[in-house]
Design a protein that fits this description.
The protein is α+β, with helices and mostly antiparallel strands. The protein folds into two domains: 2-92; 110-338, Bira Bifunctional Protein, Domain 2 (BirA Bifunctional Protein, domain 2), CATH 3.30.930.10. The chain contains eleven helices and ten strands. It has helices spanning 2-18, 22-33, 38-44, 51-92, 110-124, 138-141, 175-183, 224-238, 292-297, 314-322, 335-338; strands spanning 128-129, 135-137, 160-161, 167-169, 188-197, 209-219, 246-250, 256-265, 281-290, 306-313. The strands form two sheets. The chain has a seven-stranded mixed sheet with strand order 1-5-6-10-9-8-7. Helix 1 packs parallel to helix 4. The radius of gyration is 40 Å and the shape is elongated. The structure holds phenylalanine (PHE). The site of phenylalanine (PHE) has 10 residues, from strand 9 and strand 10.
């Protein structure tokens, strides 16, 4: 019995030496003094001993228990002090100027960035943001837009026809015009950005898929002046210019009458550069007054309402805005290209 007591004493001491935190100390306490701890079990064995043995070992075991409790409490206090000291030291040594290794953060694709920019500008001008399908019926892509079957204007669009009869990959975002007119009562104003598809040979400035931004405003008394003002305000804000001249030329689109090509003064030069092809004007913004046939197809009375529509190449605008000289880069998946944004 004496041997056991001595062994427990020295085991406890070694264990405490190795115990460096309060959680480990608690485990040690349970191992020695817990319900099934070494010391507890030894004390329980007293009841099976003879009276003499009880007299001899009883006080010894009691002393062992007290000593163990004292040692553990003492060690606990030491640990608490040590922990407080380390915490204080850590605070003192805290270096507010230390810099962390930079985390690798992702970023948005240039398309997403310019779409967000464009939407923010138009929202600030009181426009809504609309959406429409890329897989579209002949009706919404052509017929309702005053381009009936067999009309030569269909040749303007190199169309991807699909296996589903009378269905195309939309050639422009103008399909959103009719869909919106059918769902919304004027007065209305909004834009819709998205992918469009044309069967084109791919080179640095042509792709079979590109982005457009459609815009439309319909109300009583809307005129070309509203269209020009909208175009100028938008372009000025996007290119961050206090003043930006626009120029209007006639343009033909079956769904507008009259139709226009709106050009802006080159934002890169004063006297001609490669972007404006030495002309100081950049062609950016096709639009016009919505044709009465189109309003009718959308369920709006052209005697009561007028409206303008525009549909610019968002891809082209992104190329101008960010100085991208090859359209193929957008979908190339080239990390070196994407990392620049
Ligand atoms: N949808 C025409 C195109 O893709 C652009 C346009 C839209 C022109 C709206 C006028 C009005 O070529």
């Amino acid at each position: 019995m004496i041997q056991k007591i001595n062994a427990i004493q020295s085991d406890l001491k070694t264990q405490l030496q190795q115990t460096k935190n309060q959680a480990d100390l608690e485990s040690a306490r349970v191992a020695f003094l817990g319900k099934k701890g070494f010391i507890t079990e030894l004390m329980q064995s007293l009841k099976d001993m003879s009276l003499e043995e009880k007299k001899e070992f009883g006080p010894k075991l009691q002393a062992l228990k007290q000593e163990a409790e004292a040692l553990i409490n003492q060690h606990k206090e030491t640990l608490i002090k040590q922990e407080a000291a380390t915490a204080q030291q850590r605070q003192q040594n805290f270096d507010v100027t230390a810099s962390l290794p930079s985390a690798h953060v992702g970023h948005l694709h240039p398309y997403t960035q310019i779409i967000e920019e464009i939407e923010t500008i138009f929202l600030s001008m009181g426009y809504e943001v609309w959406d429409g399908p890329e897989f579209e019926s002949d009706f919404y892509n052509f017929t309702a837009l005053n381009i009936p079957k067999d009309h030569p204007a269909r040749d303007m669009y190199d169309t991807f026809w699909t296996n589903k009869e009378n269905h195309v990959l939309r050639t422009h975002t103008s399909n959103v015009q009719i869909r919106t007119m059918q769902n919304t009562k004027p007065p209305l104003a909004g834009i819709a950005t998205g992918r469009t598809y044309r069967h084109e040979a791919v080179d640095a400035s042509h792709d079979f898929m590109f982005m457009q931004c459609e815009g439309m405003m319909i109300d009583k008394g809307v005129t070309v002046a509203h269209l020009f003002a909208a175009a100028q305000t938008f372009l000025k804000t996007l290119f961050n210019k206090k003043e930006l001249d626009i120029r209007i030329r006639p343009g033909f689109f079956p769904f507008v009458e009259p139709g226009f090509e709106i050009d802006m003064r080159c934002v890169f030069c004063k006297s001609g550069c490669s972007v404006c092809k030495k002309s100081t004007w950049i062609e950016v913004f096709p639009g016009g007054m919505i044709h009465p046939n189109v309003l009718k197809a959308g369920g709006i009375n052209p005697e009561e309402y007028t409206g303008f529509a525009f549909g610019f190449g968002l891809t082209r605008l992104a190329m101008l805005r960010y100085g991208i000289d090859d359209i193929r880069l957008f979908h190339s998946g080239k990390i070196k290209f994407l990392e620049q944004f």
